[in-house]
Amino acid sequence: MEYMTVLKELSELTGVSGREYGISSYIANIFREYCDKVEIDKFYNVSGYKKGSDMAGKKIMIMAHHDEIGLLVKSIDEKGFIKFTNIGGIDSKILLAQEVVVHGSKDVYGVIGAKPPHLLKPEEAKKAVKMEDLYIDTGLSNESISKLVSIGDVITFKTYPFELRRDKLSSKCLDNRAGVAVLLDIMKRLSKLNHNHDVVFVATSQEELGLSGAKIAAYNINPDMAIVIDACHGEIPDGAKDETYALGNGPAIAIGPNLHRLYTKKIMDVAKEENIAYQVDVEPGNTGTEAWATQVSRSGIPTILISIPLKYMHTTIETVQISDIKSTGKLVSRFVSEL
Question: Does residue 273 have an active-site annotation?
Answer without folding.
Answer: no
